[in-house]
Amino acid sequence: MRKGQYDIGRKTLYFIVVLFFVTFVFLYLKAVIDDSNNELFLRLHKAKAEIILQQLSTSPDCFAYYDQELARPYPGIIDSEKFLLERLKCVRFYSAFNVELRGDKTLNLSQTEFKAIHSVERPVLIRKNGGLEKGTLFVEVANV
Amino acid sequence: MHKRGQAEALQLLTLVEIVVGIAIIIFLVAAATGYNSFTKFNGVFLKEDLKMMLNSVAASPADVKVTYDLRKGYKLGSITDDDVEVAKDSAFDDKSMLVLEYTDSSLHIGRVEK
Asked: Is A14 on the interface with B (CB under 8 A)?
């Protein structure tokens, strides 16, 4: 084999190896970065559960008691008359969550069947027949 | 093969290497910064962030007003009751600041220039 032919053959082989290596490294790094980004979104369900619980217990549009005479809501006091399934629509964008109000009786609002992956709870006061009793508001979420 | 021919072949191969190298660089940079990676991630991030922000604003027991800075690469299309849409071309871009206002049990979304 002459030197020129040998050089051309060797360079082509070298080029193929480098091309393969660079492509492999690029695809590997891209997969690692994409996985990292996806992991970030998968962890959001904890924050979302907290936000849903916060909204349900503090917003008068959800379950929080609202005094008509004083025209002010009472965050953390759950109005038992408001504890209805249609009130869950006050939480926008998310629907894959269930709510339970544990007091003297346990009341459950289930929107859909799903496998819960995270749950949060908060002590609240339940307003019932003009009186207050201690209770717990419990929210469980799917990957909303 | 004559020596002169060998030199021309080597020159041609070098030129092909340069052209192919530039093409690979362009392809890899385009793939890394294209819509399917960086911009898409920004879009998904904006959607999730705004959904949580809007629900947090609505969780307020009183009236509340929040300005939301749309950072570079963030382009908001529209906000409906069910979803937050992102768009490639939008009036809501990084030159804007969103104004989220929750009054009288309803959410108002406005825009101001930075």
From this structure: no
Residues of B in contact with A94 (CB under 8 A): 51, 55
3-class DSSP state of A107? strand
Closest CA to A78 of A127, A132, A123, A120: A127
Q: How far apart are CA A107 and CA A49, in angstroms?
A: 19
Contact A30 B59 (CB under 8 A): no
What are the pLDDT digits (tens) for A97-128? 889 999 888 888 887 777 888 899 999 999 98
Of all residues in chain B, the one with the smallest CA distance to A11 is B13
What pLDDT, on the 0 to 100 scale, is given for residue B5?
Answer: 66
CA distance B27 to chain A (A): 11
The pair of structure tokens assigned to B73 is 């690469």
Nearest Cβ partner for A41 among B28, B48, B60: B48
Contact between A13 and A19 (Cβ < 8 Å): no
Q: Select the residue of B24, B58, B83 nearest A55 (Cβ to Cβ).
A: B58
In chain A, DSSP finds a helix count (H) and a strand count (E) of 2, 6
pLDDT at position A135, please?
93
Phi/psi at B46 (5° precision): -60, -45
User: What is the per-residue pLDDT across A57-113, written as a single tens digit (0 to 9) for each?
Assistant: 999 889 999 998 988 889 999 999 999 888 888 888 888 888 999 988 888 888 777
